[in-house]
Amino acid sequence: MARWLGAVRHGRPGLAAAGGAYVCASVKEEFGIALLEALSAGLVVVAPATGGPATYVEQGETGFLVDTADRTALAAASADALDLAGGPLRERAAAQGRAMVAERYTVQAMARALAGVYAHATADQERPLRSGLVLGAS
């Protein structure tokens, strides 16, 4: 069964508490914040196979990547998502999605990753930077 919720105010995760699937029928998502919110809520997702979701949706585990321009493929992926969300692997799929978002996409996780990038970028400095100088140049 599908329910159209229409516009939902931010901060209402209880709407997804019953479980199920979230289908993003966009042709492409550069990042897909709504998909991450759905995964965080324990939903199985259907997402475009192009763009950002391909880097975090685990095919057949937390969701399904599909060519959303292909209506038949989108319908099949949606049915697969509902089967996963309503089947015996539902809790595992929900836990995997929640864990991935918590490990990689919370503000704290992203800040740690960015701090690591800065630490790596500045670790090999032989001398302080001055205007007009390039690191490693003689």
Automatic annotation (TrEMBL):
Presence of the UniProt keyword Glycosyltransferase in the record:
yes
The entry's keywords: Glycosyltransferase, Transferase
A Pfam family assignment: Glycos_transf_1
Query: What SUPFAM superfamilies would the database entry show?
Result: UDP-Glycosyltransferase/glycogen phosphorylase
All residue ranges annotated as the Glycosyl transferase family domain in the record? 21-99
Which domain of life, per UniProt?
Answer: Bacteria
Q: Which GO terms describe its molecular function?
A: glycosyltransferase activity
Q: Does the keyword Glycosyltransferase apply?
A: yes
> So what EC number does this one have?
2.4.1.301
Q: Which Gene3D superfamilies match?
A: Glycogen Phosphorylase B
Designated name of the protein: Alpha-D-kanosaminyltransferase
Give the organism, scientific name: Rathayibacter tanaceti
Task: Provide the taxonomic classification.
Answer: Bacteria, Bacillati, Actinomycetota, Actinomycetes, Micrococcales
